[in-house]
Amino acid sequence: MKFQDLINKYPDRNFMVIGTGKSLITHLPKILQFIKDHNVITIAINNIPPEIHPDFHLWTNNQRFSKYGKITNPNLGIMIGAHIQAKFLAKNKIKKFIKIPCHDRDQNEPIVFKKGKMRGYYKTAGNQAILISHILGAKQVYVVGMDGFALNFDGGTHYYKDGKEELKTLKDWKQRDAIVAKALKELHTITKFKIITPTIHESYYDKKIL
């Protein structure tokens, strides 16, 4: 399947982007119930708990895909970012996938979907997944597990430990949060997403939903 085949394929459906913040575990029962009750289309990001069986599974990081990619088994398709190397696809025996047409190397380029390609500086796969949801036709985008790197910081940023990346300082993570916040501000002019688990990005947090 090509990404172009998915454009506006799910008009008026609600989507959920599933990140990897620690709130994914603390709120897991409520998240699973929300998915069931609201029949949302789910896009999961890299390593997720086994209780979650997503519709789409998005991978944009070579290191994580190499380590965790073999666990992926989504209902509708594996989404592969522009920078995932072919050797990791082969390593994890991934033959069928949806290539995401995304150029995200220029920090000064505004976020946009134009001429069949996503452009802009997203910084995280979660941000990419928000725009992907919009492109696929989402009526409303809910986001879980996008805690922010510096929220309740204790040396780790994911619900799982991930080696060297967990050793960055709080200052480093705050700087990354600022970059993510800039992308979220741009994305919010395109699609009115809501983060529904605790997050450092409070402007988009709706704590009444879960």
Summarize the structure.
This protein has a seven-stranded parallel β-sheet with strand order 5-4-3-2-1-9-10, with helices on both faces.
Structure in words:
With 210 residues, this protein is of the alpha/beta class. The protein has one domain. The chain has helices spanning 23-26, 28-38, 62-68, 86-91, 125-135, 170-188; strands at 14-18, 41-45, 56-59, 77-80, 98-99, 102-103, 112-114, 117-119, 140-144, 194-195. The strands form two sheets. It has a seven-stranded parallel beta sheet, with helices on both faces. Strands 6-8-7 form a three-stranded mixed beta sheet, with no helix packed on it. The radius of gyration is 16 Å and the shape is globular. It starts with 13 loop residues before the first strand and ends in a 15-residue tail after the last strand. 38% of the residues are buried. The model has no long low-confidence stretch (mean pLDDT 90).
Number of domains: 1
Largest sheet entry: 7 strands, parallel
Order of helix and strand elements from N to C terminus: EHHEEHEHEEEEHEHE
Measured on Cα atoms, how large is the radius of gyration? 16 Å
Strand content: 15-25%
* Large-scale geometry: globular
The strand count comes to 10
Query: Average pLDDT, to the nearest integer?
Result: 90
The percentage helix is 25-40%
What's the helix count?
A: 6
Q: Could you list the spans in which at least 5 consecutive residues all have pLDDT below 50?
A: none
